[in-house]
Amino acid sequence: MGLALAGPAWADAAADYAEHCASCHAETRMGGTGPALIPETLGRVKGLDQVIADGRPSTQMEGFADRLSADQIAALVDYIKAPVENVPAWGEAEIAASREMAADYTPADKPVFTADPMNITLVVETGDHHISVLDGDTFDVLDRFATPYAVHGGPKFSPDGRYVFVMSRDGWVEKYDIWSLKEVGRVRAGLNSRNIAMSHDGKWLAVANYLPQTLTILSTDTLEPVKVDVKARDGKPSRVSAVYQAPERKSFILALKDAPEIWEVATDPDAGPYEDGYVHSYEKGAKESFGAQVGLFARRRIPVEEPLDDFFFDQGYKNLIGTNREGTKGVVINLISGGKVAELPLPGMPHLGSGITWKRDGHTVMATPHLNEGVLSVIDMTDWSLVKQIRTDGPGFFLRSHETSPYVWADVFFGPHKDEMHIIDKQSLEIVRTLNPAPGKTVAHTEFTRDGSHALVSIWDDDGAVIVYDARTLEEVRRLPMKKPSGKYNVWNKINFEEGTSH
Ligand code: DHE
After folding, report:
1. Which residue ranges traverse the bilayer (predicted)?
2. For the chain, what are the domain ranges?
3. Which has the closest alpha carbon to 372: 313, 413, 426?
4. What pLDDT is attached to residue 1?
5. Is the pLDDT of residue 41 over 90?
6. Which CATH number fits domain 7-81: 3.40.50.300, 3.20.20.60, 1.10.760.10, 1.10.3720.10?
């Protein structure tokens, strides 16, 4: 039932929804040609009443102010923000049936452009749901293609850098061929999804879902679902917080959000047997306890004290560093033994998904921003001690660096200084410069070119831009107009798991 709606008011809103919204957003509110209208995706969207009244520029969303009163619109906002009671089934059959392969796609034999295919950088433009494909040397836009509504998280590249997979919060996964500059197809792998991960060999794509509570594994070749899974040890379903590739381990690592378990899912046909229980062993032929599994998609459960929301790995993927959202501490779980090896002093909602690592005084350190405090924590990964908390002008969201760069680029996403970008010296851990390239506008998320010579920064605005900086002199080189650009992803940095980038 609605937040503030009950009885007849709810029925009226439901009738208005059926008449005006259902044809594009589906009777189930799970989305059709328009996005899903459910609290899981709308929770953060502001001004829904205005969108319903006036429509959304450069989309098919028309305005309804001529047909609906302000009260009716307010009731509709409550209606679409109410939890969905009957979530439709979304298993293998439904996923397979949602597949749309592009009729006009023919794979090119070689790149259809002369730019370095390893230095291509994608810019996600959330303003009108497109991705721009940039030549990383000249910064020319080679293509601009439409994405599903509300892309979130990093796109994932095939290991050879040719294909990229993009996920939307509504669970759509789009496959795009960079060599051909063409969409290959798309499939709806979930109804509300968190993120995606590529397997070490490029054959499988894992999709972490909240709705339904599943992990979907797709064939990257055909986009067909090959496995839709998730039942916690107690037999109950669970949402998946996020899934990542552990390249050295030839597996996916995911954390369940509703159960205290980390899963390792093998992408190596020779894997295992994994012990499907609270015994940690990788020895082939180890004693079967809770039904060991062998081979592709063998699954190992690693127990943790409480469910993890957010996590990160060391460069060798030996340890997972995790936290829950409210968490006042982080935990370090050794992926080989499955045991907890340390607790980290990380108060104030650390955003470990944005963590990066680098070398300092012969040690590897990691840094993470905190979502509710203007501070970056720097941790020594040798003994898990806190090296420093760097005070910033406000809470930030994203950190980026490059092996060749002496600096960390840290945005100040929230608060009055959202137009700033701090440049931090990786050795002294001091802020050495604060850039303010578009006063009053949100400046966020950095990505480097393949060689680390340039850094690209987003002006997060409908009338925004990507600013290209000389990464050494910190001087602006180019300003490329873009529609609310968010994340940027360089093929080389991503497929090589460059230490300064997100994985
Ligand atoms: Fe993100 C990455 C979770 C809100 C933009 N975000 C990620 C990842 C996770 C995550 C787990 C890593 C996935 C990956 O790349 O494989 N994000 C969350 C949240 O839990 C949170 C706080 C709440 C939510 O709504 O889900 C959240 N994120 C946001 C935003 O509000 C942002 C700023 C705008 C948006 O697009 O929704 C946002 N998140 C991003 C971006 C990345 C990301 C641009 C990829 C960064 C990268 O460099 O890889």
Report:
1. none
2. 7-81, 91-114+136-259+261-303
3. 413
4. 44
5. no
6. 1.10.760.10
d(CA 425, CA 401): 10
For residue 294, the model assigns a pLDDT of 77
Return the ∠ at Cα 308 (arms to 306 and 313), rounded to 5°.
Answer: 130
For residue 351, the ligand 1 atom closest to its alpha carbon is 22
With H, G, I as helix, E, B as strand and everything else as coil, classify residue 250.
coil
CATH of domain 91-114+136-259+261-303: 2.140.10.20
Residue 368, ligand 1, Cβ within 6 A: no
For 263-321, the pLDDT digits (tens) are: 999 898 887 666 544 333 333 333 333 345 678 888 888 889 989 988 999 988 999 99
Mutate to test the pocket of ligand 1, among 41, 129, 147, 152 (most ligand atoms within 8 A of CB): 152
pTM of the model: 0.90
In this structure, the residue with its CA closest to atom 45 of ligand 1 is 153
Compute the distance from residue 252 Cα to the ligand 1 centre, in Å: 19
The Cα 469–Cα 120 span in angstroms is: 17
pLDDT at 4: 66
Task: State the DSSP string of 469-497.
Answer: EETTT--EEEEEEESSEEEEEEHHHHHTT
Nearest CA to ligand 1 atom 40: 153
- Kindly tell me the burial class for residue 272, based on how many C-beta atoms sit within 10 Å of its own C-beta (0-12, 13-18, 19 or more): buried
| CB of 485 closer than 6 angstroms to any ligand 1 atom | no
Distance in Å, CA 400 to ligand 1 centroid: 14
Retrieve residue 498's tokens. Answer: 């460059």
